[in-house]
Design goal:
The chain is 40% helix and 11% strand. It has helices spanning 7-27, 35-52, 76-86, 126-137, 158-169, 190-193, 199-205, 218-225, 266-286, and strands at residues 67-70, 146-151, 175-181, 184-185, 188-189, 209-214, 236-241. It has a single domain (7-286), classed as 3-Layer(aba) Sandwich (Rossmann fold). By secondary structure, the protein is of the alpha/beta class.
Length: 287
């Protein structure tokens, strides 16, 4: 068990995460976006980049860095805003979203933006690439770690399970899969479209060690991420139960906000809503 985060740390993480949510909404003034999964995954990314990942924004290709792959590439606005918050590039780059020759397109491109490890968009490929990187990492001293974030909808892709089987077979304990299980995808509930549950038992069957957490509880997120590998000789899977569009109260748990086509003035109202949600969470922390 790791040392629990104190109130000051949780407050700082909350403020950073909600700053990223506001920046996502500001980016959206130039076009629609996959907001639901970006918001559900942000608390995890915030803890990962601020508390766990070995990385250097001033040297994005530092050889000893841990790698993070966002396999569910359509959630990239969460990654873009997190990287900007970490100092990988100027925040002004975010405001070019959805414009010609932008460095922050609707899916991440490692050739144009520092901090991106692999271009993802077509679902199901990130974990396979991650386990390849984990193989390479074994040649390093010390070996770096590879974190891959997937969606529960994405977990219906067959290539995901090939990668899970391979990683378990090769005992890649420097590979960590994080499943953002928000229960919804573009056209409805994941369990009704393609039920991949119980994810925990399936990962275990392929030789992984698994933990299930509340993906919005900073202490649970930190404890899990800081404890990998859970068992030496096994890859680690973190199944994070999250809320689609967390922090935007009128959109939470609604699949219609997986990809949001907003109307005039809705973005400004959404920013106010997110600010209110942030204040409410900060009050809870102080209690």
């Amino acid at each position: 068990m790791t040392v629990a985060l104190d109130k000051a740390e949780i407050k700082q993480l909350t403020e950073r995460s909600y700053k990223c949510r506001k920046n996502i909404l500001k980016m959206m003034r130039l076009g629609e976006a996959h907001i639901g999964g970006a918001f559900s995954s942000l608390d995890i990314m915030t803890v990962l980049y601020n508390k766990v990942l070995s990385h250097n924004p001033k040297e994005p290709k530092w050889e000893k860095r841990d790698r993070f792959i966002l396999s569910a590439g359509h959630k990239c606005m969460a990654l873009y805003t997190t990287l900007a918050d970490q100092g990988y590039f100027e925040e002004e780059v975010l405001w070019t979203y959805n414009s010609f020759n932008t460095r922050v397109p609707m899916h991440p491109d490692e050739k144009v933006l520092p901090g991106i490890e692999f271009p993802t968009g077509s679902l199901g490929h990130g974990l396979a690439v991650g386990q390849g990187m984990a193989h390479i990492a074994r040649m390093e001293n010390p070996p770096f770690r590879v974190f891959v974030m997937l969606g529960d909808g994405e977990s219906a892709e067959g290539s995901v399970w090939e990668a899970i089987m391979s990683a378990g077979h090769h005992k890649l304990d420097n590979l960590i899969a994080i499943v953002d299980r928000n229960g919804l995808q573009v056209n409805g509930e994941t369990v009704k479209i393609m039920d991949t549950s119980i994810l925990e038992e399936k990962y275990k069957a392929f030789g992984w060690e698994v933990r299930t957490i509340d993906g919005h509880d900073y202490n649970q997120i930190y404890d899990a991420l800081a404890s990998v590998p859970f068992v030496k000789g096994k890859p680690s899977a973190i199944i994070a139960d999250t809320i689609k569009c967390k922090g935007l109260s009128f959109a939470e748990k609604k699949f219609e906000f997986h990809h949001w086509h907003f109307k005039e003035n809705e973005v400004d109202d959404a920013i106010v809503n997110v600010e209110n949600s942030c204040r409410e969470e900060l009050v809870k922390i102080e209690k």
